[in-house]
# Entry
Amino acid sequence: MQLRNFLVLSLVALLALPSEAAKNKKDKGKKGSSECEDWNWGPCAPSSKDCGIGFREGSCGGETRRLKCKVPCNWKKEFGADCKYKFESWGACDSGTGTKSRQGTLKKALYNAQCQEAIRVTKPCTLKAKAKIRAKKGRGKD
# Structure
């Protein structure tokens, strides 16, 4: 009977150890917690080149911190990776410039980024669109 009680107590003690270790691990994560709530974060600056893993610096009162961040390699440099926009469909191809454009309205600004409310982006027309424009111009001259 004593042996069984000893084994049950040992088993309970062993099961309690991992939960204590997990609790201590969670507490370690809170070690760097701050009382400050009004953090000002800068843009994500890639460690090398113009995209990839980097760091974002923030300050609040006299405290400064660095957070690991990632700049996607297909981001639009004109308006930054921290400004998220909802875009309309692409417009028709402009025969004068050979480009098409669309407008985006600000959906979300991450880390208190300074973003424009509305932006316009352009890209070159596809070869099919250029061919259609040329065909229309050619027909009008006859």
